[in-house]
Amino acid sequence: MSELASDLAELVTANHILAREDVLDAFGHVSLRSPQADGEYFISRSRSPELVVVEDLQRYDLDSKLLGDDERRGYIERVIHGGIYKARPDVKAVAHFHSPAIMPFCVADIVWKPVTHLGATIGTDVALWDSQAEFGDTDMLVSTADQAASLARALANSNAVFLRGHGAVVVGGSLRELVMRTIQLCRNGDVLLRSLPFGGVTPLTAGEIALSGAKNLEPPVLARAWDYWATRAGH
Ligand code: MN
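Above: inputs. Below: predicted complex with manganese (II) ion.
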């Protein structure tokens, strides 16, 4: 298998893993910056992630214009991916999703913080982007280049951002890093929400987040997690 074919196979696996782990469902998507061209990315045509096969992958430029002759309908919100790859040269993979585990952080006055060692994979802060601030009443989708650029500004140099009333975006320096972060954003959020009613929740310190976050992203740790999740997803 060529290097590109192997990367695209991994993108398909990432779709299946994030569906299996209840991050993506009928909606949401995951993309990979082209390993061959920084100005391009791969993402499925408009299809639920659990069903994605390699033949569904399409190639786009960073303005999210289709490259090649596959005219099948793309995801409306693919501009999120193009906008972030444009703003963040370090980002190689992006996921957008509406997992129930994180929705309270998009709706209520609750701040997401790392409270578990695996949650540290996200880093210290997750901003909340409110489309209302710049765009007023919309259909709540991120469907224009201006909206995607605004979202990328809210993400800034962090690893995740919440969208008010909508969902979240997570970024990674590789697909494996992205999958780890995305699942742990949800898991940590779930632990935090279940702990809050008992009071006295202790977030990790900045030092713990830095040390633990780096440990969780070491290649052997990522490989162990990836193999587990991929097996659960039927690979
Ligand atoms: Mn969405």
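The beta strands are 29-33, 40-44, 57-61, 66-67, 93-97, 127-129, 160-163, 167-172.
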